Fold this sequence. Notes:
With 400 residues, this protein is of the alpha+beta class.
Amino acid sequence: MASRQSVTRPNRAPRRMAVMLVLVALVFGGVFGLKWFMASQTNAFFDNMPQPPVAVTAFEARAERWSDREEAVGTFTAVNGTDVTTEAGGVVRAIEFEAGQPVRAGAVLVRLNTENELAALRALEAAAALAATQRDRWQELGRQKLVSQAEVDQRTADAASTRAQAEAQRALIAQKVIRAPFDGLLGIRRVNLGQYVNPGDPIVSLQSLDPIHLDFTLPEQRIGAVLPGTRVHATVDALPGRTFEGEVTAVEPGADPGTRNFRVQATFDNAGHDLRPGTFARVGFDVGGEREVVVIPQTAVSFNPYGNAVYVIEEAPAADGAAAAPAAGDGDAAGPRLAVRQRFVTTGQARGDLVAVSDGLAPGERVVTSGLLRLRNGAEVAINDKVQPTAEADPAPGNR
C-alpha cells in the first residue's frame, strides 16, 4: 500500500493582513482627506467672503480761530471770613443776631455778663476822680511853693495811673460785647444763653461774600502769561449752565518749590451770593492771540501711548459685483464705495467736545467719529449721521 503524501498549502495570512491594512489606510485617508478638503474650502469661503460695510458717523474737519486757553481748578474764598470769637471769657447774657442773616460791621452779636466788671469800673472811676482832685490841689500848692515838686509829680502820676486802670476796665467790658468785625453773612450760631465761653471759642461764622475771591494754581511756565487784569471765566458744579466772569487781582510772585506751581487770585462780583467760600470751580482764560487750527470731535481720536490716530474716510475703487455704500447723510441712497485709512495726527488743546489737530489733517477731510473699535485699515464703511455725537466748543447737556 502506497504511502499517502501530505500536500503543503501556502500560508496566505500575511497577505490578507497587508491587504486589510491597505484598505484601512485608504478608508481613513479618504475620510481625513475629505475633512481637510471641506475645512480648506470653508476657510477659503470665509476669507474671501465680502465684508458688509461698517456703519459709522463722520465729521468734516474744519478750520477755526482759537486763542491759547489755559484751564485750572480752584476754590472760592471769602475776601473776609472768620469765626467770630471773644477775647474775654464769660457767661452769655444775650444773643442779638439771627443765624443766616446779613450784618453790618459793628453790629452787636453777643453780650456776656459784665456785672462784676461794671462794679469794678465804678470803683476805679471814683478813685480816678479822687486822684484827679488831689492832683489839682497839690499842683496849686506846688505853685505856691507850699509843697515840693516831687510831691506834685507823685500826685500827678497817681491820677494818671488810676485813670489808666479805669480805661483798662472799660476795654475789658467792651471785649465782652462781641460785635461783627466787618459786613457779611452770618452762619449758624454755636453758643446758647447761659453758656460759659472761653477766650477763643467760636461763636458764629461770618463771611463777606460780595465780592469773592477765587484762588487757583498754574504751572510755572505760565508765570509770565497771567497778569493782574486778565479776564477769567469760572463754572461750578452746583450751578450747571452758568458762567461767572471775574478778573485776576493778584499773582504770587514766586512758585512753590515743591509743586512748581504759583498761586493766582481772581475777584468776582457776587451780589446775589450765588458763589460761596469753599466751592470747587473750573477756571478758564485766554492767553496770547488768536490762531487758525483744524478741529474735530474728541471721539474721532484714538488716544494711544504710541501716538494719536484718526480714521480718514476716502473713496475706494468699486469692486465687481460689490454694492455701493450709502452716501454721507443718506442712509438709503447709493453712492461711491467708502473706505477708511488710519492716520497718525498731532493733537493740541481741547475745548469742550472739540480738539485741535496741529498736524496730520487738513480742513475738509472727513473722519470717523463713532465705531472706531470695529475698523481696520481699508475697511469699507457706510456713513449714517442720523445719530451724530455732539461736537460743541462749549457743551451744555440738558437734564433728562
